[in-house]
């Protein structure tokens, strides 16, 4: 009997001060709906810091807690936390993603999408922008990273700018530097109606994405993943539309 071909994979990026184990729990409701079609590859960020927003008390003793940017020392509390202003996808992050993509491909699979929660949404945006820039230049990806993402999904989006690999950062006088083009790869942006950081996700969409290919939806939550069965079904259907539309 022939083995079943691997399902297409989605890379999943947790929020600040979280980790893959925690995000696996947070994704559980939606993951049950997606896993008949996709393999979800949930990654751990490389930089360790304090627990992020909404992580405690439920995920107490579930560390180490990780960030996609270098945590900065908070002078008031002494805690390590991301500053939210970095724009560079550091080499350690590129390495995590490159390793994951190569492992999927070595097993005969393909990474077709990326989803991110909160700070993780900035990684997704950076990957999509980098991919479009690499395609424009007709070269290889930074640090050997070469993705073929067909769609992206963000949950409770974070501050712009996207985390863009350093090799593609704008440089003064560099005619081949990344311009101000908006991300055109089809995307879904899920915002919480009661999320106090909603303005950050809206700013990311408004400043960084092409409105003709970016769809925003609202769910009745605070700064966390959708809870209700109906809302998870709705998000799943929107993701399936992105996938089917990319074929």
UniProtKB/TrEMBL annotation:
One Pfam family recorded for the sequence: FSH1
InterPro entries (UniProt xref): AB_hydrolase_fold, FSH-like_dom, LovG
GO biological process, one term: secondary metabolite biosynthetic process
Entry annotated with the keyword Hydrolase: yes
Residue ranges constituting the Serine hydrolase domain according to the UniProt record: 7-233
Protein family according to the UniProt entry: Belongs to the LovG family.
Name assigned to this protein: Serine hydrolase domain-containing protein
Species name: Mytilinidion resinicola
